[in-house]
Amino acid sequence: MTIPIVQVNAFTSEAFHGNPAAVCFLPDDRDPAWMQHVAAEMNLAETAFVRRHQDAFELRWFTPAVEIDLCGHATLAAAHALWESGQLAGSELARFQTRSGLLTAVQRGDWIELDFPVTPDDPADAPPNLIESLNVAPRYVGRSRFDYLIELETEDAVRMVQPDFRRLSTVGSRGVIVTARSSEPAFDFVSRFFAPGAGIDEDPVTGSAHCCLAPFWSRRLGRTEFLARQISPRGGILKVRLDGERVALGGQAVTIWRGELLA
Predict the structure, then answer these.
(1) What is the CATH number for 191?
(2) Distance of CA 241 to the CA centre of its chain
(3) Which letter, b or e, does each residue of 9-34 get, where b requires 16 or more Cβ atoms within 10 Å of its Cβ?
(4) Calpha distance 248→105 (Å, rounded)
(5) Same domain, 61 and 156
(6) What number of CA atoms fall less than 13 Å from residue 262's CA on the CB side?
(7) Active-site positions?
(8) Backbone phi, then psi, for 87, in 5-degree steps?
(9) Tens of pLDDT along 215-248?
């Protein structure tokens, strides 16, 4: 039996930008080891595995190295692929059962809006190798459920970070968010995301990191709505809205290719 699979660039309206994710439509349950092999074969930041389950879809995310608990861009990609393939009508809400609970997605014009849980940070001491591996002078260090968060003085300082990924992989978190106020008036803040311990040196655009960045910048700026930009080499744009214990993440998506798994 062949299994449909597509690649979608998320958090962008342009091909070959944003964050690529593979979306695999499963006809039945599959062994996690098989899913991990597929994710390693795809060699993208994440591969999403989608299987219809009652009135929702079971959704799991794998990097080339590990299964993860929360992923924004691959959820955006999965919702886009479901609507584009006709498995969901354009007016239907996409409902996903995940390791982080129920997540939803809805189409709003040319954008897709995800409903995700807040993962706020608390001030934290930097663990060994964190600051040294980034070679930065942080204004602030925090820790969320998943990641360390480091605020720098300027956007240029964020752009210039060149991590020692081997050392960074030892800090004991899923990843590290580096952020600063945007130097461009059109955007509120910028970020980059590094996760060498999960098999991703730099993630192009990280929706789940904004579940931490939303409450952080809300405290800093006294607002709940933002236009954010992740300034990786591929880059991406997100509409971010903090709503109590939830975060709305808005993005666009483009399908790059469609195929079939034969294994």
Answers:
(1) 3.10.310.10
(2) 16
(3) bbbbeeeebbbbbbbbbbeeeeeeee
(4) 9
(5) no
(6) 0
(7) 46
(8) -70, -20
(9) 999 999 999 999 999 999 999 999 999 999 999 9
